[in-house]
Known about the structure:
Layout lengths: L3 E6 L3 H14 L2 E7 L2 H11 L3 E4 L8 H11 L5 E5 L4 H9 L4 E4 L4 H12 L4 E2 L1 H13 L14 H9 L3 H11 L4 H8 L3 H15 L4 H10 L9
Parallel strand pairs: 1-2, 1-3, 3-4, 4-5, 5-6
Helix pairs in contact: 1-5, 2-3, 8-10, 8-11, 9-10
Amino acid sequence: xxxxxxxxxxxxxxxxxxxxxxxxxxxxxxxxxxxxxxxxxxxxxxxxxxxxxxxxxxxxxxxxxxxxxxxxxxxxxxxxxxxxxxxxxxxxxxxxxxxxxxxxxxxxxxxxxxxxxxxxxxxxxxxxxxxxxxxxxxxxxxxxxxxxxxxxxxxxxxxxxxxxxxxxxxxxxxxxxxxxxxxxxxxxxxxxxxxxxxxxxxxxxxxxxxxxxxxxxxxxxxxxxxxxxxx
Length: 231
């Protein structure tokens, strides 16, 4: 398989050098360019056409939040993976609202970062466990509402009616998605192919009119498929 072509965006040159070395050593990722802030990242994306952007948040001129918003406007299908030292609500929620496909902490191991890049480039949403807990705490504080703007919430009865329309296998996949499993992990657990998992995920989003793993998790909590304590 061809390596994932990544644009690395961070204002610390030494850190960029270290991340480039770790990613390149994996043999699965190629850092095709480096930007020191959001503005430079916007320009380089146009030139390099990367498969994904690995983005810091706190940067001069244009921070990661604003850069992610603009990137998603220009390139809706380009996944942006956040790599940050911060796991607090003030950073996590705005960047997810901006359209980031994942959030990994800088204390993560190199292989975790590689796995996260593979996940977001295959259409998944990936969150470091500490970041996921921040999101879930926010969901709980909001009574189960998503941190990002969304259409008017469905009533519980309407959500249960939608749940009844799902097949048993779709419910299983939905539950595992809500528990944070990747497509690969779901495939292994249910003894099915990754393509089958992807098909079930697509069917779930279409049937439920939901658009990402966060919204699917919210639905699973609302309908009682899982509880916050399980996540």
